[in-house]
Write a structure and sequence with these properties.
- Two copies of one chain form a homodimer.
- Chain A is of the alpha+beta class.
- In chain A, 34% of the residues lie in helices and 21% in strands.
- In chain A, the strands form six sheets. A nine-stranded antiparallel beta sheet of chain A has the order 1-9-10-11-12-19-16-15-14. Chain A has a five-stranded antiparallel beta sheet with strand order 8-7-13-18-17, with no helix packed on it.
- In chain A, α17 crosses α18.
- Chain A starts with 13 loop residues before the first strand and ends with a strand.
- Chains A and B meet through α8 and α15 of A and α8 and α15 of B.
Chain lengths: 746, 746
Amino acid sequence: MQMIVTKDNLEDFYLKDPGYDPATSKYYEGIMTQGNGYMHVRGSYDEGLIAEKQDLEYDRKPANVTLEVQRFPLSKWGTFVPGVVGPHPFLMTEMINQPYFFDTVLTVDGERLDMAESRISDYERILNLSDGVLTRSFRWDCRNGAALRLTYKRFISMDRKHLALSQLMIKGLSGSARVQIDAGINAGVRTNGFDHFTSIRKNQRQTGCSLEVETNGGNKVLIVSEIEADADFSGKKDINDAIYSSGTVEINENTEFLMTRYIALCTDRDQEEDSLSFRARSVIEEARRAGAQTIYDDHKTAWEKRWSASDIRIKGDHRAQLAIRASIYHLMRAADREDPRVAIGAKGHAGEAYFGRYFWDTEINMLPFFLHTDPEAARNLLMFRYLTLDGARENAKSYGYPGARYAWESSVSGHEECACWQYADHEIHVTADIAYAMKNYISATGDEEFMENFGLEILIETSRYWVKRADKNRNGEYELLAVMGPDEYLPMTRNNYYTNRMVKFSLDLTCAELESLEEKEPLKYRVLKERLGLKDDEKKLFKEVADNMRLPKTDDGSDIVPQSDDFFDYADIDFDEVWKDRSKCFGTCISQEHNYRVKALKQADVLENMLLFGPEFTDEVKSKNYDYYEPITTHDSSLSAAVHGIIAARLGRMDEAEKFLDKVIDIDMDEAAGGAKEGIHIANCGGLWQLIVYGFAGLGPAMWNESADFKPMLPAGWEELEIPFFWKGRSLKVVISDNKAVLIER
Amino acid sequence: MQMIVTKDNLEDFYLKDPGYDPATSKYYEGIMTQGNGYMHVRGSYDEGLIAEKQDLEYDRKPANVTLEVQRFPLSKWGTFVPGVVGPHPFLMTEMINQPYFFDTVLTVDGERLDMAESRISDYERILNLSDGVLTRSFRWDCRNGAALRLTYKRFISMDRKHLALSQLMIKGLSGSARVQIDAGINAGVRTNGFDHFTSIRKNQRQTGCSLEVETNGGNKVLIVSEIEADADFSGKKDINDAIYSSGTVEINENTEFLMTRYIALCTDRDQEEDSLSFRARSVIEEARRAGAQTIYDDHKTAWEKRWSASDIRIKGDHRAQLAIRASIYHLMRAADREDPRVAIGAKGHAGEAYFGRYFWDTEINMLPFFLHTDPEAARNLLMFRYLTLDGARENAKSYGYPGARYAWESSVSGHEECACWQYADHEIHVTADIAYAMKNYISATGDEEFMENFGLEILIETSRYWVKRADKNRNGEYELLAVMGPDEYLPMTRNNYYTNRMVKFSLDLTCAELESLEEKEPLKYRVLKERLGLKDDEKKLFKEVADNMRLPKTDDGSDIVPQSDDFFDYADIDFDEVWKDRSKCFGTCISQEHNYRVKALKQADVLENMLLFGPEFTDEVKSKNYDYYEPITTHDSSLSAAVHGIIAARLGRMDEAEKFLDKVIDIDMDEAAGGAKEGIHIANCGGLWQLIVYGFAGLGPAMWNESADFKPMLPAGWEELEIPFFWKGRSLKVVISDNKAVLIER
């Protein structure tokens, strides 16, 4: 037996942790999250950290997540199966943190291995982004005088979705030690302070153990752990909510010991035959037959296939190269390409923040990456919205509207899950963003069939909501009152430009698609009308509201697009007086009350609109608006920097674009800032991809362009940029150097 | 021994409960609340209701109390000592429901007396408003064949503040029964679903028992119960959180049995010497020496004194007569005249709703009653604000402001306790309302000393807050943005007229009082300036902001005072489409989201301002604004009807005024509507007083009038109206008939 041999160990695929540090340990847990779409595990140490209790219960109440001080400064385990969700007493439905299955406790003469407490040296930990393997190796000078070298490798199989594999190699360096190994499954975890498990069943076998939980969401999750090693692991340890297979090995100078664990996780949500235990056992048996190296090789092949369609190469900028690869890694990891019953949670299934829920980010920030690298995954994301249309219908009804209203925060049912009313009630643009995303998808992929079979139903139902949500004013215009736009620092504005424009787009699209279907497929059109009870009056109203949707404007010749009709009525603020420490979020330096009455944007709002509706604004208008809004934008939202960077790059303002590139990269890659602690800013990962592709490479969006045209403006130092992409059914690659783009068919 | 003999049994002082009915039992608990300022007990049956568990625990989360569906449909005990408060896990600091000390369980041959289950007839229950005695009498046909007449009397002594007294008389009518009586103290109560007691100590003596709780607010409350009866009550029953003295009496035809209970309640908040147990014992011993009749006589004398200063007599309208007496009764009961560390909670200490907290209602709705009937109690209410000024300072600081900002919902510390941010953050007018109330107090009483010693400090500190809270606009005006006015259905408006006018008043008053003190008492002025670090620049700024405070206005000649600068931008609403069932609150028929963007007022806002600043508006302007606002006002708030009634009466629109009089009376007096279930709408009690005194009698407010002038407009059928009142130090009485007022010195 030997450790698996991994391949492609290229430095610019390596995320490295320089060594245990209480200030960064939780950051590395987040950024080193592993997964395969189906399941995800944060990069916690196998043995945990003694100082950090993982089953602490507390009342976590609704609050602004961005501004909240988090518990667990050192470590928070996280094992997630998107779709396995349950109600939290204060926070609505959330993704449940599952039992931690990499749990492996080592003890030598009563000393428990701990990265914080033990004498550790020669430490190296690497997440290889090319194959998602997490490797850790270090020397442990035990208190009893023995010295050991420990090497861990672990991954979650990309092609065997229920399987995870971990290996531990112990070498004797000097002295001798009896190492007790407890390897098991630990359900002593909580999700945002709450215990979602209504029952825990534990089982022990000669060569392993299993643990099954039932959740308060009504699901069953079974985890089976099987050990392969030259030692007896039939010892049982049953401690509170955990179960371990226990064994002891004698390590002397130069002896080597290898333990391989095959771990299977199955749930009753899986659309598969047979009982949970039968399925999990089959996974384990097949894995043992194949052996660790074959499992790795298959896994590596699956990753290679993904990377070949998505890998962006940047010559001359190692930091940007690593950052875009980390972003692509997490985007590919986070998406379940096979299951449209889940989408991508706002923290990329790498933490408990935002509760694993789905926001507008999926459609606006992440979707473009998938459109051009994995159209099937893109389609799945939109199918998720189709499958949750009934939830959206119920949302509309609960607010007193006909039609469908997508949730500001959605879980698997589509029902509104946001516990803070100002967002849930007033940040309504998500419903129109989904329409935009559908059109974007069709433009990029040519998949017209999606619109006919699924999209149009969404369009009709959401249009029914919009025409009732809009109020007609004295001038015959339709208004959207009490709206929170993308800028969440103004919760109740009048005619938010972004929202109104998006709603007009959505209604126009509904009318156009109805007309097109009627013309092309009159029978299908009649069937659809009948099925949804669509009346001609409704169609007329869709058009009337679209044609008369109010879009705020200024009449002073300044070309400033008002964020909302009442935007200029808010107070000016002296940022220097309030925001003294710029390393903190602006929002933490001001009371919400004060924040809600001043012109201080959380994020791009008008500029976001200019990005999505680029052709509607001249460069001059964009430039003026950039100059007006950027200085009053705090970029407290991680969605902001990429948008500003793209606009700046397109305007040729490269110094600013590069400043925003830095900011985008820092959001998750700066270990000192620690942005990835609570999970990956997965929308920003999509943002970085857009910044490179739309911003620096200058690809004209598929929504507004028939052919793939690039107008590159590369940052200083970027010698060559290579981007593979799909474009309306074609598989292409662009290579850019000296600001010249060469397009190649793949 | 005999039952106490009570006096003055006049029908128009009687609140009568016609008999047990599940639909109204909780209503009568609320409306029949007894108290003496220091402590209060809801009018629950001594024996409770078997079907309603009083110690049910549940998570009550912040919500709009008005629209919430309450638990406990049949009965909710309530025993309150204002000032004894503690933290609730979700609702912030709340008044704690104390152990129920009237608890008396009767059992005959295993049949427990229960108003819902037992065979009860010839039932009468009366709360006599003139002396606060609650009497209940009925025939009980026991299952064992015996028939008994039971008579209960109980009251909370108005002059012995720690003492309550209850009597039970049992007469045999036929057959014979061994009646087991368990009389004790029951700590098995919860406040809004939460157990505030951290410990319970129970004690038993030959003739009684005692129970002491410690609360999670850090207080101790000791209750001692002593029994006087011709029977042995040395039996002990210790059940869960309750303790009872237990005795058995043999009742045969024509035998009479009388039990008297002396109950003392003392807390560690009382500003008294000696230990809790010593003090409680002393109360009991003194009471036993005096005897029940003397205790009643003293109590009655104390009530008589109160009534002589406050009783309004209405000839020709029994319903209005009873309603105003109920209102006056509850106002006098709810106010602790001796302890400025507490004020009057929004439900008059008669229920758990609104958490026993203090709102602007105290100053604006209740204070006028006290100004003119009990100036000392009025002063106490304002002293409460002075004593909580430090809490207000901390509120200001927590929001990033200098000075002091009173809490939208205050408990005893003055800290903000409102758990819903839109009110806590944005309904800021309370801070200015307090300034208005101080001026009102001084105008009505002539107590200038209050302003010098206490009021001016409040004015300076709150002015410091206001000048920072205001934003200067491009025209040099000062604006108040993101404000919820009295109309809570628009949470974030621009320049709410009511609020801006009130703030201007407050700042003007600060400047005027500073100037006056400087002129009259230069030394005191210098000491005050020094003590509060008041700079001349600040004074200038107070004046500048006062002089330039924006007051919204229309330029279209319509004379409509805009509720706020953005009021007309909200959408119109078709009330008939949304509000189909007018027996329900409008707010329950519409989503909050929809409500927050339409012109549908919860309550008087502009009209409230016109009431408080009457001389600033002509009758014509008032009339136009009444016509504009009334049809779009839902009166979902109990503060609304009285204001509308007063304005209508003053405009001579008597049909409308009488309609609002009905509405005001119904709020707590209509047993079918059941408004008093969760406690008394005590602000509406003050509103009814104002409607009669300012509205129908037409007294010109002391704020704007030197002498007491009446311009009566009595409702149809009111033959004579008599009002005693204090006016700037004088004790007067007005008698009105045929719309002529005769003023008499008392």
